[in-house]
Specification:
Shape: globular
Low-confidence stretches: none
Strand order of the largest sheet: 3-2-1-4-5
Bound molecules: iron/sulfur cluster, zinc ion
Mean pLDDT: 94
Radius of gyration: 18 Å
Number of helices: 12
Structural class: alpha/beta
Helix content: 40-55%
């Protein structure tokens, strides 16, 4: 995942996983002095939630002497997530959850932030739990091309899309939490007010129930997907990129997913 001279944009939300990752990666500065780290934090604009997380993220960056960049939805897209959700709902758009908007817009925001700081890779704190939840969600949605794309080290598919790595992909979420507690890392532990809407919660509950009865299942599922991945990549539609007519970013269609979503609220 890592080369000695990487400039890593570490996606830091202010939660336990991303801060545990930031603290662990900060050790690279000692062993690989040519590695550069910059934290990139996205301010989605979620009232009563994100402000506290931002403050905690910044405190940790200062403590570790890691420069940081905050990218906000409002600045980037003209709307906060709260505004997007409220407008979409007032127009009767109920198909997409807040998390569906948030996921797409945040991905683009992190990529924009990573490019802005000149990073060649984005490191995210997706844990083993996140990875298999995502894999299964992609199966449940029948989204095979997404299943092929969302892997621990993404392929370098376009010069404007910064490669993503997931150093915690084999670390169970509760071990990353344990690290944060043992190291006395300050993190935000209040849940996002929109979190209850996500299909991900059902996946998490299901996998935790099975793991409690059959220890090791999470690793087995992860390994099974990794073994299948080459075959999945062969069957998935190969990505071809156009340029989004609105924002000029790489896109599968005439409009990127982000600009398509923003049409719901403009
Ligand atoms: Fe965004 Fe959903 Fe996560 Fe909240 S729970 S930060 S809305 S993805
Ligand atoms: Zn676009």
């Amino acid at each position: 995942m890592l080369r000695f001279n990487d400039h890593l944009a570490v996606a830091v939300s202010g939660g336990k996983d991303s801060l545990a990752l930031l603290h662990i990666l900060s050790k690279l500065k000692k062993y690989r002095p040519k590695t550069i780290l910059t934290a990139v934090t996205v301010d989605e604009g979620i009232t009563g939630y994100r402000d506290e997380a931002l403050e905690i993220a910044v405190q940790n960056c200062k403590r570790l002497e890691i420069p940081y960049l905050i990218v906000s939805f409002k600045e980037l897209y003209g709307f906060s997530l709260d505004e997007i959700v409220a407008t979409a709902r007032s127009r009767g758009e109920t198909e997409l959850t807040a998390c569906a908007y948030c996921g797409v817009l945040r991905r683009k925001a992190i990529n924009a932030g990573a490019r802005k700081v000149g990073a060649n890779k984005v490191a995210t704190a997706h844990t083993l739990d996140d990875e298999i939840q995502t894999d299964l969600m992609n199966i449940f949605h029948g989204d095979i091309s997404r299943l092929a794309k969302e892997k621990p080290v993404t392929s370098e598919v376009h010069p404007l899309l910064v490669q993503k790595i997931k150093p915690f992909c084999e670390i169970p979420e509760n071990e990353s939490a344990l690290y944060a507690y043992v190291k006395k890392i300050k993190f935000q532990d209040t849940p996002c007010p929109y979190a209850g809407e996500a299909l991900r919660n059902d996946m998490r509950a299901m996998l935790n129930t099975i793991e409690a009865k059959h220890a090791g299942t999470k690793f087995t599922v992860f390994k099974a997907f990794e073994k299948l991945r080459p075959a999945i990549e062969l069957t998935a539609n190969k990505e071809s990129f156009k340029t989004c007519a609105e924002c000029g970013e790489p896109s599968a269609g005439d409009l990127c997913k982000c600009c398509e979503m923003l049409r719901h609220v403009r």
